[in-house]
Amino acid sequence: MANQEEVFKKVISHAKEYGYIFQSSEIYDGLSAVYDYAQNGAELKKNIREYWWRAMVQLNKNIVGIDAAILMHPTTWKASGHVDAFNDPLIDNKDSKKRYRADVLVEDYTAKIETKIEKEVKKAAKRFGDSFDKAQYLTTNPRVVEYQKKIDTILKRLGKSLENEDLADVKALIEELGIVCPVSGSTNWTDVKQFNLMFGTKLGASADSAMDLYLRPETAQGIFVNFLNVQKTGRMKIPFGIAQTGKAFRNEIVARQFIFRMREFEQMEMQFFVKPGSQKEWYEAWKENRMKWHLSLGLGNENYRFHDHEKLAHYADAATDIEFRFPFGFKELEGIHSRTDFDLSAHEEHSGKKLQYFDHEENKSYVPYVVETSIGLDRMFLAIFSHALKEETLENNSTRTVLKLPAVLAPTKAAVLPLVKKDGLPEVAHEIVEDLKWDFNVVYDEKDAVGRRYRRQDAVGTPFCITVDHQTLEDQTVTLRHRDTMEQQRVAISEVKAIITKEVDMKSWLIKM
Asked: Which residues touch 348 (CB under 8 Å, ≥6 apart)?
């Protein structure tokens, strides 16, 4: 665990040192769990968003995108259930005075058991070598089976207690498992209480007449209230989807783990409207589609898994998470939910307006069912960034820090480096920059020895370095260096654009889906 914590600390410090993420309003000692995306972070975030939008909207003829407002009529949140049911179960430790999410304490406990399973698997894999059958081992090894049974029993009980709002049993479970406060080490817990997560605000000039509003806790409701507008103006036929990306706000009491759980964050959501009765097959189809999208980035199949929900939200008839192996363990990255007709029916009821689809084939109107895919953009950023950060020992025993971001998402695609700051080399380098900047983000760097410049670009995640030297003046060739392999090749200046395009073009990545 300590090793994982060290890795995570390096991720956080690297993000700051190389212009990816800063603490919000740091000169005033910051604001807890609120972060600013710096110059490189803003580019990486934009590229992730674009990669999602292309796959979701541009490549699907029956999905369109919108951009709904953050502020919505307050009845929206009454209809959606957020006013009454958008709560987290919280528990305080009386000795440390620290507050925790009760469900997260239990999940962290089961994550430690999962770590034990992983250790057993590693040992067995070493012992049996090539003949090792992991799937068989997980279902037959008595110790592993016992561990898994314990995890399942705990999570099932937690899910049931939360569903029944039996907070006394959640506390009893924490006590029975002997879960201690990470700060004080004591088991001196208060009762578990519910806490609403919405941020309130006001609309209006005077305090007397101001309307109470909320900052949206999710982007989905902006899609639901616009369902009919989009369907009619776009002449959309079911099944069809509406996608959007945007900010959401949650008053997380226990915000933690850097940008994993923040108070102001960005979601990328798509609501897919289907005929009632067909939702289960669409749910399975979107599970498969979304996993393919994640795998197209090449972060490794072993770092993803599905986790089906024991406890279903009040609106769902099926739900799963795509979990990613973060430095602090497997955690939710994306949710896929079969939301039934809950949202549109609730908005119909509260607004008094019909939100139905007239199906010409069946010659009748009905409220569509919805399958949702919802991914946190900030979590996706953290997944990519933390996985990309590597410390490598080279052949000469020196080490290099390299950020192996998928080239398609890297903030800067190439750095152009004149070998020396004279003999006309900077001029040629600037010409190359001027030519490439129309197609890619490129930077010019002439400070320090070229080896040190390579290291700097490795650490910032730039896939290519283009070095202009004296030979360039003779034959119009440059040295093209690849970040991941450090391989260098001599290429004509006229070929550089095509080589980079092949590596960073979204089409060549998304076509793998």
From this structure: 354, 355, 356, 367
Domain 87-196 is found in CATH 3.30.40.230: yes
In angstroms, rounded to a whole number, what is the distance separating the alpha carbons of residues 170 and 228?
A: 41
Instruction: Summarize the confidence of residues 353-377 as an average pLDDT.
Output: 94
pLDDT above 70 (res 2):
no
**CATH class of the domain at 38-74+212-381:** alpha beta
Q: Long-range contacts: 7-15, Cβ < 8 Å, 24+?
A: 7/327, 7/386, 8/257, 8/258, 8/327, 8/328, 8/386, 10/389, 11/258, 11/327, 11/382, 11/385, 11/386, 11/389, 12/258, 14/389, 14/401, 14/403, 14/459, 15/41, 15/258, 15/385
Domain boundaries, the chain: 38-74+212-381, 87-196, 394-510
pLDDT surpasses 70 at 205 = yes
Q: Is residue 274 helix, strand or coil? A: strand
- CA 449 → CA 46, 419, 445, 471, distances in Å? 32, 8, 10, 18
pTM higher than 0.70 for the full model?
yes
Architecture of domain 394-510: 3-Layer(aba) Sandwich (3.40)
Average pLDDT over residues 3-24: 90
Indicate the pairing of strand 304-308 with strand 318-326.
antiparallel
